[in-house]
Amino acid sequence: MRGIDSDPGREFIIVNITSAIFQCSAPNLDSCPDASLPEFAFIGRSNVGKSSLLNMLAGKERLARVSPTPGFTKLINFFTVDRKWRLVDLPGYGFAQVAHGTRTRFNRAVADYLEHRKNLSCIFLLIDSGLPPQEIDVDFVQWLAGHALPFVIVFTKTDRRPPEAVAANVKAFTDRIAPWFTELPAVLQCSAQTGRGRSELLGVVAATLAEAPEAAVPAPAAASLPAEIEPPFRLEVRAASFREKPVSAKKRLKGARPW
Fold first, then answer.
1. pLDDT of 158 strictly over 90
2. Out of 25-29, 161-165, 223-227, which region has the weakest mean confidence (pLDDT)?
3. Could you give the CA distance from residue 129 to residue 213 in angstroms, rounded to a whole number?
4. What is the pLDDT of residue 231?
5. How many domains does the chain have?
6. Please, are residues 25 and 259 in contact by the beta-carbon 8 Å criterion?
7. C-alpha–C-alpha distance, residues 159 and 203, integer Å
C-alpha cells in the first residue's frame, strides 16, 4: 500500500493523543462537520469490536459506546483528537437490528461518506481474526479497491484465539484478496483487551498525516475488478426492536450522543 508501511519490524512514529472528544453525529454526508481536519474512518461487521478498539486507541474507556447489540451504531460519529484530526465511527455492516425502512438511508450515507468525503485520509477496515474469510468482508474489500480508496486491514480480537489460528485466518483472507492488488494493503493485528496494535495504528495515522495532502491508495491489479461495484453494505435484519423517526437531511445532531 503506497504511503503506509506494514513492515512489522518498522519503528513507527507515534501520535501521542492528549485529548479525544465526541464532536457530533451525522445521518448523511451533507450533515457532516466541516472538512477542515483529516479524518480516519473505522468500519467493519457489526460485531467486530469497533467501539472497543476506538476506545483503546484513544485511551478513553467510554469515548465510543460499547453495546452487546450488533449494529448499535446507526449514525456517522465524529471524535476530534487533539484538535488536529478526527476519528470517525461508521455504522457496521452485516447483522443489525434496525427498522426495515431505515436500511437504505444509512447504508447509502456510509457509501456517500466513503466515496465523497474530501478530507478522508484513511479507512481502517476491521476484520474478526477469529473467523475464516467472511464473504461480506471480502466483498467490502473489493468495493474499496474498486473505488481506489485508501485503507488498512485491521484484524481484531487477536487475544481470543491461539496465535496459529489467527495467523491461519489472516493468511486465508489475504490470499483471497491478493489477486485484486499489485501490492496488498497494509495488514495489522490488534486487541482492544491487551492493547496490541495500538502503536501500529497510531503509526499509520502519523505517517498519513505527515504525507498529507497525498492520499495512500492501494493499487488494484489491472482488469481484476468489475467496472462498477455496488456498495456491499447489506443488512441481515431480524424483527425490528424499535422505530426510527426520519431525520432531516440538513439536520446535524449535536450534544447528547443519539446512538
1. yes
2. 223-227
3. 32
4. 53
5. 1
6. yes
7. 21
What is the predicted pLDDT for the residue at 99? 55
- Domain range holding 37? 33-236
Does residue 259 sit within a domain?
Answer: no
State the chain's maximal CA–CA distance in angstroms.
50
Spell out the residues 6+ positions from residue 107 whose beta carbon is closer than 8 angstroms to its own.
91, 93, 231, 233, 234, 235
CB contact at 8 A, 114 and 124 = no
Question: With contact defined as beta carbons under 8 Å apart, do 51 and 89 qualify?
Answer: yes
What pTM, to 2 d.p., does this model score? 0.76
Q: Do the beta carbons of residue 198 and residue 235 sit within 8 Å?
A: no
Q: Which CATH number belongs to the domain containing residue 131 in this structure?
A: 3.40.50.300
pLDDT, tens digit (0-9, with 9 covering 90-100), for 140-149: 999 999 999 9
Q: Do 21 and 80 form a contact (C-beta atoms < 8 A)?
A: yes
Whether residue 230 lies inside any domain: the answer is yes
DSSP calls for the chain: -TT----TT--PPPP----EEEEEEESSGGGSPPS-S-EEEEEEBTTS-HHHHHHHHHT-TTSS---SSTT---SEEEEEETTTEEEEEPPPBEE----GGGHHHHHHHHHHHHHH-TTEEEEEEEEETTSPPPHHHHHHHHHHHHTT--EEEEEE-TTSS-HHHHHHHHHHHHHHHGGGBSSPPPEEE--TTT-TTHHHHHHHHHHHHHHTTS-----BPTT-S-S-------EE--S-SS-PPP--TT--B-SS---
**Cell for 243?**
422505530
Residue 250 forms part of a structural domain: no
